[in-house]
Amino acid sequence: MRFLAAGIAFGFVLTRAEVISWFRIQEMFRFQAFHMYGIIASAILVAGISLEVMRRRSARALDGTPIVLAPKEMRTGARYIAGGTLFGVGWAFTGACPGPLFGLFGAGVTVMAVPIVSALLGTWVYGWLRPYLPH
């Protein structure tokens, strides 16, 4: 029940901030407005501060295990470029990234069921193929 309430609150915030607005997303991709870039930048800032606070306080999960971030190994970057491009193309086609998909569906844009199912299917396929992919 807590997670459902958190999801509903998250959807409400996304709706009020116009993050799920197709027009706002198109403005961003056309470099016509700062609105979405400001939201993304503030999310990055909040995440960075939160991670630093967790690191300094040696945060622990509810079961007592320490929360740590494994160091990332940067390689050629080709996989980041390919993944980012695929993500961006999907975002441009649907007009929404994964978080707002559920907010849009909840707001009555039922056609968003198609990208939601596609995202879930893509996640399942990745999980199935992961052992065979280079990491």
Radius of gyration: 17 Å
Mean pLDDT: 87
Order of helices and strands: HHHHHH
Could you say which structural class the secondary elements and strand pairing correspond to? mainly alpha
Number of strands: 0
Number of helices: 6
Overall geometry:
globular
Q: Mind describing the biggest β-sheet? A: none
Q: How much helix is in the residues? A: 55-70%
Number of domains: 1
Strand content: under 5%
**Which residues form runs of ≥5 with pLDDT under 50?**
none
Distance between the termini: 36 Å
Brief overview, please?
The chain has 135 residues and is mainly alpha-helical. Helix content is 65%, strand content 0%.
Can you give a write-up of this model?
The protein has 6 helices and no strands. The chain has 135 residues and is mostly helical. It has one domain. The termini are far apart. The model has no long low-confidence stretch (mean pLDDT 87).
